[in-house]
Amino acid sequence: MALQDVSNLDDIKLLVNTFYDKVQKDDLIGPIFNEKMLGRWPEHLEKMYRFWQTLLLEEHTYSGSPFPPHKHLPVNQLHFDRWMEIFTTVVDSLFVGKLAEEAKVRAANMAYMFNYKIEYFRNPENH
């Protein structure tokens, strides 16, 4: 079956669920996510559905600021690279099209910004 573009909430759920399933099993970033999300995975996944639904489908179901819950995580560029690697692989395995490409661009921008801000909070004297 030929791959289609992301087009509705079911597609968003498939993307998010497949991505976080791989994240939870990943040797590098899995332990960080699993410790932080202990008992809260369903709530996090719901939030991620709304986040990506808002970004990609322009159905405004997410409000809030995505960065603050992440600022004290014990992560660095290596973790963000792995996060992006998994995200890109998942998107490419499930979808093809304009919104699939948009998802990867948005994720890369977010990874860059989150990493930059975390480094800034961690070492404010270097800025």
From TrEMBL:
GO molecular function annotations of the record: heme binding; metal ion binding; oxygen binding
Source organism of the structure: Flavobacterium bizetiae
Metal-binding is among the record's keywords? yes
Q: Which gene encodes it?
A: ctb
Record's Pfam families?
Bac_globin
**Protein name per its UniProtKB record:** Group 3 truncated hemoglobin ctb
Name the domain of life this protein comes from. Bacteria
Coiled-coil stretches are none
Q: Which UniProt keywords apply?
A: Heme, Iron, Metal-binding, Transport
